[in-house]
Amino acid sequence: MTDIRADFTQAGPADAEFGDYVALLKPRVMTLVVFTALSGLLVAPGGLHPVEGLAAIIFIALGGGASGALNMWWDADIDAVMKRTAKRPIPAGKVTQGEALAIGVTLSAISVIMLWLATNALAGALLAFTIFFYVVIYSMWLKRATPQNIVIGGAAGAFPPMIGWAAVTGSISIEACLMFLLVFMWTPPHFWALALFMKSDYHEAKVPMLTVTHGRRATRTHILLYTIALLPVALATGLTSIGGPVYMAAALWFSLGFLHGAWAIWRRDEVQAEADSYATEKRVFRFSLSYLFVLFGALIAEAALRNLPAYADFAARFNLMEMF
Amino acid sequence: MAIAREHPLHKRRSGRNIGLALVLLAFIALVFGLTIAKVSGGGSIEAFDHTYRPMLDPDTLIPAEE
User: Fold this and answer.
1) Is the N or the C terminus of chain B less surrounded, counting Cβ atoms within 10 Å?
2) A9 to B16: CB separation less than 8 angstroms, yes or no
3) What is the domain-level CATH number for residue A124?
4) Is pLDDT at B14 greater than 90 in this prediction?
5) Which residues of A touch B16 (CB under 8 A)?
6) Do residues A58 and A105 both lie within one domain?
């Protein structure tokens, strides 16, 4: 007689904890998605029912998480080589690639359909395009093909404030485009600063990061140039209906701080950077994170302050769009 | 082997099941909340209900008085 007893106590590679599935959704990246989407939603004219707003944020975050899972599915080989990503659920052997693919596809469909039902078709379509852009255009194509991967791929991370705006208004305006551009222009210097001090990672994984293809000197120059280009975008956002004195002060101060950091990175060479273990590059990377949070936080503060009639009148003077 | 013997695997699976249950419950609560928000926030809800009603027929609408 054949013994068909199964040994249920043997853990397979796919026997993950709940937290491993959460890690698949890149929760740290999700905080940025949630925050910028929330900003877009709060600064948009009009408003949503609080439950609709909450649902919109949850489904935008879920869409971001789904694209994170699909990115981990596709990039499992790269993640296994890089120190920074070697502990992710797939290379760590906790979640299988098939599971990540299934979770990514399912959550993508749920998030897009639910955002559409909760708000409108434009917001749903933009979320679908964002997932497509991040997974297909960035992960599958650009990341392994060109050193401009971060520049063009950064667009995927720049869509959430525009989706938040579209969820409320059902349209796209100059303000939504400028919020998009703000994240889009911020992404390259932020990631190149990271690439400078995570030097061996991208090289070993054969990812054509700018540091690998064009060298570290060129990367330092690129960081400075993109930070200079970020300044007018940050200030132009303050001259629209969502800007005002609080945002302008924050944008000016933090943009100059970012520029100062980029200048410090540009002035250094590898010998100096090695000597202090890339202290400046790490400092600028951290600063760039707070930069985005402060600027979008200032936009939310402007929206809140505009409830005071006296402030609203004063802030309207900053609106260049109104003058024409 | 006693059937109730604990193994770390059971703990992991139980955590996974509880996590999934909480996510599903939260999803149900959100869809319920959304339904309430949509129904209470929208305009009058009127649709075809299998009997002819002239007010739903654009051809029979009486033009507004000048």
Assistant:
1) C
2) no
3) 1.10.357.140
4) no
5) 16-18, 21
6) yes
